[in-house]
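Per reviewer request, we include the raw input and output of the structure prediction for the construct analysed in the revised manuscript.
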Amino acid sequence: MKDFLNWKRLLLLAFVAAGLYILTKNEWITLGILFVLLVIDHFLAKFDEKQRNKYDENEQDQ
């Protein structure tokens, strides 16, 4: 969570938001899609962290 607000992620989010707004011309649809993308990103980051911890534990055991 500490790297959630890094500049690369914010820049990418701004480009996605601008593109979605241009495509849909609706703020609510854009906000809804961005919310879903952020939730998916959060769960993928948790899954990735869990997998890396599991891999690190296996490497230390060997």
